[in-house]
Amino acid sequence: MNSPTPIHRAPDSPATRQALALAGVFQAASLVDELAHTGQVDQRAWDTLIRATVDTNPESFEAIYGGHPNNLRRGLETLEALVGRKQANPVVLRYGFSLLLLTNKLRANTDMLDSLGRKLSHIQGQANHFGATHENVIASLGEAYQETISTFKTRIVVQGDPSLLQTRMMPERVRACLLSGIRFGLLWHQQGGRRWKLIFQRKALRTALDSLS
């Protein structure tokens, strides 16, 4: 019998916690792009995002992303591009920054934030019954995104293969993934993350990424 993956305690460094939360945002952005072009997705990265979104009462910071930084590896690699260490995918970066913008709009709209919280609490009950990644749960997450975040004038227009984007459950999967990016955007802000820091504190982000590599 395999033993469970041990929980790796996240450093108390605010910059490192911000980096992990931000990695969740850009992991969502990366998976949306992957879904839109291939119809497939990295399963570990996907499971991490969806479980984080349906768990409305995590027992710790680490529990949100499954206890190991490698669960956010896709997002951490995208951050490496953000700080100039790797080739950047401009579409993924655009999705990521758009998610941060939408997160700020959500934070300013307390009625919508409360509504989304109620929807997620209901979806957590579904996840407890069916399993976090069951298509009923994914459909509900997609619907929650459509009824809240999608009503903002600012929207994320997903580019990809039109035939793929119209296949069964694909719109729901894309919206669920975008919602997970919002979830991590809220976490990033809770940990002290701010957009200006991405411009003026890149050295701190690089150092945080080094500690997680």
TrEMBL record:
<dbReference type="InterPro" id="IPR007451">
    <property type="entry name" value="HflD"/>
</dbReference>
<keyword id="KW-1003">Cell membrane</keyword>
<protein>
    <recommendedName>
        <fullName>High frequency lysogenization protein HflD homolog</fullName>
    </recommendedName>
</protein>
<dbReference type="InterPro" id="IPR035932">
    <property type="entry name" value="HflD-like_sf"/>
</dbReference>
<keyword id="KW-0472">Membrane</keyword>
<dbReference type="GO" id="GO:0005886">
    <property type="term" value="C:plasma membrane"/>
</dbReference>
<keyword id="KW-0963">Cytoplasm</keyword>
<dbReference type="Pfam" id="PF04356">
    <property type="entry name" value="DUF489"/>
</dbReference>
<dbReference type="GO" id="GO:0005737">
    <property type="term" value="C:cytoplasm"/>
</dbReference>
<comment type="similarity">
    <text>Belongs to the HflD family.</text>
</comment>
